[in-house]
Structures are given as structure tokens and as C-alpha cells.
Amino acid sequence: MGARLGVVNALLAQVLPFAIAAAISPTVLTIVLLILAGAHKPLIRAWAFTLGGVAFTILFVWLSVTIFGNLGDAGTGHQSMGSRIVKLVFAAVLLALAVRQVIRARHPKPAAGGPNKWQRRLANARTIDFVAVGFMAMLSNASTLVMILAGAHVVTVSQAPDSAKVEAAIMLGVFAALPMLLPVLGVTAFGSHADGALKALNKFTTAHRAAINAGILVFFALLLVWSAAK
Question: Is 4 part of a structural domain of the chain?
């Protein structure tokens, strides 16, 4: 029992950095906050958005673990050279995106439709449409997807028992869904008492979006380099 617990804890510790990284998603968080700030059924729409996002997250984690589980290094305890190269390529892409964020921040271009484009789109959408919006928001959330892929690869390479791998995969999915779940759960539990905190959070993420995104991308890239070098 003690030996199994040690194996499970070791795997969870290896996956945890990628799970935490997958939970850092300013874009998804901003969309949730915009929905909750809406005038028409904000909580119901936010839950619909979260349902779509969580559905995609579950599907993507399952597909990632399934695909990586059929690769040559699955269950060996060691990642292949090909896996290391892929991680380094992803790290280079993330660094390039970070540089792009900095350049955009220094030379901003006015967004088509103005700054309230997202608010207008969300206001005009049907409630059921928010399920698809949540699904697509996670589908287009490249940095989180890369972290899920990296975490799923750690899970499948591990020599831990299948039950431990399932626990690690669940942890990965739960963390990735936190940017959607936490604001919605907060409003559901505390109602209008959560408004102040959510408005402050929305103001902060909006004002520092470029710096936050660039910093996150650099962190993700370094995490991938560290993982490839292990």
C-alpha cells in the first residue's frame, strides 16, 4: 500500500507543474468574466460556456492520453528522443508567440469592431450558443493545449499503475478547467458578493493582458525545455 502510494504521489508531482500551467489562461478567464458581466442571464450563460469548455477539456485529455499511450515510449519510464525534440519545437513556438505579444503591445492596432466587439457578440448570442463558445474557446487556447499534451505524455510514459495514471489525467483536466469553473462557482455560491472581486480581476487582466500572456508563454516554454531535458 505504501509503495503504491509513493508511486502515485511521484506521478502526480511530475504532472502537477503542467496541470498548474494549463490552469493559467487569461483569455478564457476574460471571456467568462465578460459573460458574467452581461445583462441577460449571465450565470446561466456562464454555466453553458463552462459546460462546453469542460466537455472539450475532457475530450482532449482523453484523446491525448489515448494517443500517447500507443507510442513507443509509453510505459517505459523514459521519453524518446522524438518526444524531446517535439517539446523543444513547441518551446520555440511559444517563445516566438511571447515575442509577438510584446511587439503587439508596443505597436497596438485598433481591433476590428472596437474594444466592445466581444461584448456585443456575446450579448447577441443565444444561451445554447454559449456551449459552443466554450468548446471553441478551449479549442483555440493553444498554450493550455500544449501543457495538456505535455502532461499527458508524462502520464503515459510513467510506469505507474493504470489507476494512478487515471488520477493524474483527471488532475490535469480539473486544473485546465479551473479558469472557467472558479468564477462561475464563485458567483453561484456568493451571488452579488462576488461582483467586486470579479470586476477587480477583470480590470487587472484587461490592463495587463499583453504582459501576462508574454510572461506565461515564456514560463510555458521554459517548462517544456525542462521537461525535454529530464
Answer: no
In this predicted model, what pLDDT tens digit does every residue of 49-108 receive, in sequence order? 999 999 999 999 999 999 988 877 676 767 778 778 888 988 898 898 888 878 877 766
Which residue range is the domain that position 125 belongs to?
19-229
Residue 108: predicted pLDDT: 64
Q: With the CA atoms of 177, 182, 188 and 193 taken in that order, what torsion angle do they form, in degrees rounded to the nearest 10?
A: -160
Q: Rounded distance, CA 228 to CA 31, Å?
A: 32
% residues pLDDT > 90 (the chain)? 27
Indicate the number of domains in the chain.
1
> What's the CA gap between 179 and 182, in Å, rounded?
6
Residue 31: pLDDT over 70: yes
Q: Does some domain include residue 10?
A: no
Check: CB of residue 26 under 8 Å from CB of residue 212. yes
Read off the pTM. Answer: 0.82
- Residue 168 domain flag: yes
User: Is residue 5 in some structural domain?
Assistant: no
First-residue to last-residue Cα distance in the chain: 28
Burial-class residue 195 by CB neighbours within 10 Å (0-12, 13-18, 19+): middle
Which one-letter amino acid corresponds to residue 138?
M
User: What is the crossing angle of helices 42-68 and 26-36, to 10°?
Assistant: 160
DSSP H/E element including 176: helix 162-190
